[in-house]
Amino acid sequence: MESLFNHIERFVKLDGKIKTQIRSISKVKILEKGTVLIKQNQANVKSTYFVVDGCIRSYYTDDNAKEHTVQFSVKDNWISDYMSLYTDERASLTIECISDVTLIEASIFDIEEIFKKFPLLETYHRSNLQMNLVKLNRRILNLLHLSANERYKLFLEYYKGLDQFALNLHIASYLGITQQSLSRIRASKV
Amino acid sequence: MESLFNHIERFVKLDGKIKTQIRSISKVKILEKGTVLIKQNQANVKSTYFVVDGCIRSYYTDDNAKEHTVQFSVKDNWISDYMSLYTDERASLTIECISDVTLIEASIFDIEEIFKKFPLLETYHRSNLQMNLVKLNRRILNLLHLSANERYKLFLEYYKGLDQFALNLHIASYLGITQQSLSRIRASKV
Known about the structure:
CATH architecture of the domain at 2-117 in chain A: Sandwich
Radius of gyration of chain A: 17 Å
Helix content of chain A: 40-55%
Oligomer: homodimer
Number of helices of chain A: 8
């Protein structure tokens, strides 16, 4: 739980009482590579996940069985299918552990309840959402105006060490390019 | 101010005292088409804007003077350069009125202060951020997996009536396609 407490304390100060409450709604899980947390099209997405160790990927599978990676989540980041979590729609994405993963799972209901008792935690969540908004705006801007080569360079800077977990297929589908293009970009760097 | 109060009341209940406080940090402005609210590369982005009437566009201009539209904001939506507002970096985007616009401007400092007095408003802001996260995730997913034609169809559904404000250039650069491609897509619909 320490890594989650440290993450929260980047934004707000926690005391013993709040930590006890956070512990009470947190499930620590150690999962094997390949574990699926949310399956595209399932109903009732109610959980969000904080990565303590390892890597989780969210992706959409289209009608031609092609995968499109929306997000990678490494240590100290939250992940879920927000399009479903915040709207009650069926899951748009599959959320899958692409390495052995230690994570903390919390339900959206418990989180909403804890905000009522400790508004401080809503401030943390709000600050975290704002940082997410920044990241997603940058991602959209990069998809719109950067070349595949430039997007790959930024990806390597931003996701340092992700190479150990992510397959070519995952990275290419995050960048919105084919695996062949990714291989060409990588080859040109040697 | 009524449209902002109504928007907030979709999420939380307001009383007279809170409304007075919101009024005290809100500047209502009536602006002409072409007014620039934030200029790419400027320092000190501190304001966010709620559109009461009209349409505002945010865009990035690249080194070749090509514009890339990140967001359109119509009635009852907030807009700013969040990449700058929440990080203190220089503006990445230009925010411009593409019609005559009535808006409410608020400073991020005043907003942070009002959250301390009225945590209810932080709940509104948090809920609004969550909905934004949903929209941005959908946009990324659409950019990754939909054809230009499909993106244009979704755009028309989502931004009903935007045609009256937005130029071909704006829409094409939002969809990440050339104006020629947009014209072809439009012609094929006739």
